[in-house]
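Field guide to reading this record: the first block holds the primary sequence, the second block holds the structure written as discrete tokens, and the final block holds curator observations. Each block starts with its own label. This record concerns 1101_t:CDS:1, catalogued under organism Dentiscutata erythropus.

BLOCK 1 — SEQUENCE
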Amino acid sequence: MRNTHEIRNYLHANSLNTRLICDICEANYPTNTNLTNLKNYYAKYHKQEYHLAISKNEERRKQIKQVNQLQ
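BLOCK 2 — STRUCTURE
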């Protein structure tokens, strides 16, 4: 499984796979936009979704850490 951040679940690619498009407001970014820029965008314009994504990501990281400790 690829380790991706929850923020990326709120974006989809255009038909040519050249841009990432926000599912909420249709803002678009190049596909190679780094995660920090996407986080900053959501923190500024979509606060509720940002906090939800951050909490989900933290929960997922804790689960991965527990699994790794058991191995």
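BLOCK 3 — OBSERVATIONS
Residues 6-70 form one domain.
The CA atoms of residues 31 and 44 lie 20 Å apart.
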